[in-house]
Amino acid sequence: MTTFIVGAHGQIGQLLTKQLAATGETVLAGIRDTKQADALSALGGQPRQFDLTALPQEQAAAFKDVDNVVFTAGSGGATGYDGTLEIDLDGAVKTMIAAEQAGVKRYVIVSALYADQRDKWAQTGIEPYYVAKYYADEWLQHRTQLNYTILRPGALTNDAGTGKISLQPTLASSKKIARADVAAAIVAVLSKPQASGQIYDLVSGTTPIEQAF
Fold first, then answer.
1. Which domain holds residue 127?
2. Where does the NAD(P)-binding domain start and stop, copy by copy (predicted)?
């Protein structure tokens, strides 16, 4: 199987590249800057320059002969809200369109916990980010025929992964999750047909990741 990671040089993207390559899968690591190529090669990925501001038909060429597309990209806090709309919303939607144009069936996106709960957005202090995540998720569910999985992790940390999560944040003691565990969850759902068409909230917990889905 061949998986294209959009945003492979991000923190989750790098962890995912390493974890997925370790399973023997072919990993195409989508990067914005060719200077990032060596880092992704060292993790087992095959770097591919990829422009999230390009038109979908241009992006589709990068998805030729790809089985899975995983969207882990994010504009980051330094780009301002314009960047959030361009990357986290429109960039995500364009990759969905491109995936369908290229004949890709499986699509996994990293969203955010509470992206579907407007009443919680204001308290986060980054409401435009949640707006972008909400509408990207909506497009994926209702405007595509992709076999999607939406992962909505809680607050991300750089702690070592525990290999255990909870899909029920209301019952969990923490609303945080290690980026390494998010990457491991992506690897897990890619191998499980029953995860298609599903939305999962993810926080640190006590259930082994392989058994959670």
1. 2-212
2. 7-193
